[in-house]
Design brief:
six-stranded antiparallel β-sheet, Heat Shock Protein 90, disordered N terminus, 12 helices, single chain, alpha+beta
Length: about 600
């Protein structure tokens, strides 16, 4: 009954392996996402850090170009204030002198030479008469008059009162150097007319710009309001006038009308910040400009985007290193987690396989115990079958002898029928006991199971032993499998019989019982526990034997008469049903074994 075919173990193990493989495939999906996250998350953080870093670099660049323009503004302002002071001193030195006296004055020439020498940005000082001729200068004495009618500072509209006029870059005469003039009309003898002209060497400003710029790709310039470039870096072949031709004066540079910086100067005349590509060298820069206070000049500084990108890349390298370290750490951590999870899955699969093997072994053991119990029951009821068969044969013989007596034949036939009925009932009970192994149950009626099992056991234990079965009224169903309960009960009764070789009473009781742990909780809790006790008055067990009672394969019976699995099976049934098996025994006084099962 309930046997397993050959190869079932291998098939079960193969199915367990397949289940473990499917579980392994399912478990890889989260780890694939974790592997991807280990790479994508640092990349995402790196992207955010790169964006934030670029935002910081650009903000810092805006601040730096603004500070650079402010510094250039202060530098130009101080230089112009110095030149204005020089012009004022020369005007004072000229006094009311006429131009003939001025041209012949060695003292005035010495003053011009001294002031020019002591002013680093000065590119020379000249005095221009009303007829637009240079009659005196800081370079030489006496000076052969030079025609200056082509200079813009000699135009009537150039000077208004005592305001300083700043001209475009020109080639100075007589020295031939590139300069731009700073001039003013005579104020102490306005009726005499003429102009005092000091010049700036653009190299002075360009050298300063080269010294303070952050990189060689950055640009700086000093520009007149009309677009004429007075000084700039990088220098080289600059764009000329709006038509692309050299300016009308040799050496004059001018921003073309389409130049973005020039357009910005016209739109926002005080100061501004723009991002543009230079038409001069094609380099993209972040430009800041500012109008020089009190003068028709602008200072312009452009920070190259290459400089900004270089600063950004330097920061990005640090962020990338951190992201790489984080990615490596996450990958290592993911690998360790996956290995640990794989080990856990393997261990879980092994445990599941072992649990299935154990469950299968327990099932086989329970089946074997039931078969053993059935065999012992069969052995016990064999005498009853023999008596039934003998009674039926005897009745048949008497029928044959008394065939002529109908009344006697009917009486004997009734006896034969009663014997057959008794045998049929015995067979039905044995079959029911055997078939329950194939129909496991979750709950059962303990009173009914006890009554049917006692009926079988009465014919099994022999005439020397008396079986007493008692059950309380209104016992509820209990949790567990009926077949396993009956097997456990048979094993307990047979053990009790074996403990009384000279015979004696065996008492089976089933009743509500209040455990000590639940006594304080009232009757409701007590009613949920059913105690089935098997008591004998046999030899009992000493402490050493009692300590090992219930261990699988432990028995005190001679070899061949016991397997040591009866109590182990009974305990396993009780524990699976959520209950317990308790054994109380006194050597020489008997044993009480109690199954405590929870009510369903």
């Amino acid at each position: 009954m309930n046997g397993k075919p050959e190869g079932a173990d291998g098939a079960g193990q193969e199915e367990t392996i397949r289940q473990a493989a499917r579980a392994d495939l399912r478990s890889r999906a989260p780890f694939a996402a974790l592997w991807a996250a280990s790479v994508l998350l640092p990349l995402l953080v790196l992207g955010l850090a790169a964006w934030w870093s670029w935002h910081g670099v650009e903000t810092a660049a805006r601040d730096r170009v603004q500070r650079m323009v402010d510094m250039m503004h202060e530098h130009v302002l101080r230089s112009l204030d110095t030149q204005e002071a020089i012009l004022e001193a020369i005007d004072y030195g000229m006094g009311q002198s006429d131009w003939e006296s001025i041209a012949e004055s060695r003292r005035l020439h010495a003053l011009l030479a001294t002031l020019n020498r002591r002013s680093p940005p000065s590119g020379g000082i000249v005095l221009v008469s009303p007829d637009r001729r240079i009659v005196a200068g800081s370079a030489e004495f006496p000076l052969t008059p030079i025609d200056a009618s082509d200079r813009d500072y000699t135009r009537p509209e150039a000077h208004h009162g005592d305001r300083v006029y700043i001209g475009e870059t020109v080639t100075a005469r007589p020295r031939g150097e590139r300069v731009f003039p700073v001039s003013r009309a005579r104020s102490r003898a306005p009726e005499a007319g003429g102009w005092i002209v000091a010049s700036f060497a653009p190299d002075y400003f360009e050298d300063f710009y080269r010294a303070v710029r952050e990189s060689d790709a950055d640009a700086a310039a000093l520009v007149r309001s009309g677009g004429a470039v007075l000084a700039r870096i990088p220098s080289g072949d600059a764009t000329r006038d709006a038509g692309g031709n050299p300016g009308e004066r040799d050496g004059s540079w001018r921003l073309p009308a389409e130049e973005v910086v020039g357009a910005a100067l016209a739109e926002n005349p005080d100061q501004g910040l723009i991002d543009a590509v230079s038409t001069h060298d094609g380099n993209r820069r972040l430009y800041a400009y500012r109008k020089v206070t009190g003068y028709p000049l602008y200072v312009v500084y452009g920070m190259s985007r290459q400089t900004m990108r270089a600063a950004w890349l330097r920061e990005l390298v640090a962020h990338a290193a951190i992201a790489w370290i984080a990615a490596m750490a996450l990958l290592v951590l993911t690998a360790r987690i996956q290995r640990a999870a794989r080990r856990e899955r393997v261990a879980l699969a092994d445990a599941r396989f072992e649990a299935e093997r154990r469950a299968e072994a327990e099932s086989r053991l329970a089946h074997a115990q039931r078969v053993d119990a059935l065999g012992r029951i069969v052995g016990g009821v064999a005498h009853d079958f023999k008596n039934i068969v003998q009674a039926m044969r005897g009745g048949a013989s008497r029928v044959a002898k008394r065939a002529d007596d109908p009344d006697e034949v009917r009486r004997i036939a009734g006896m034969i029928d009663a014997s057959a009925e008794r045998g049929a009932r015995l067979i039905e009970r044995m079959l029911a006991f055997a078939r329950r192994d194939q129909m496991p149950t979750a709950r059962f009626d303990v009173a009914a199971a006890l009554a049917e099992t006692c009926d079988l056991l009465e014919r099994t234990i022999g005439p020397a032993h008396r079986l007493i079965c008692e059950s309380g009224a209104d016992l509820p169903q209990v949790t567990g499998d009926r077949a396993e309960f009956e097997t456990a009960l048979v094993n307990l009764v047979l053990n009790a019989r074996d403990a009384m070789p000279d015979g004696g009473p065996i008492r089976i009781t089933a009743q509500h019982e209040t455990p000590e742990a639940a006594a304080a909780e009232g009757a409701d809790t007590a009613a949920r526990i059913i105690a089935i006790a098997v008591t004998d008055a046999g030899t009992g067990m000493d402490e050493a034997t009692l300590a090992r009672a219930g261990e699988p394969f432990f028995t005190t019976k001679p070899v061949g008469e016991g397997t040591g699995l009866g109590l182990a099976t009974a305990r396993a049934f009780a524990e699976h049903a959520g209950g317990t098996l308790e054994i109380a025994s006194v050597a020489g006084a008997g044993t009480r074994m109690t199954l405590r099962l929870p009510a369903a």
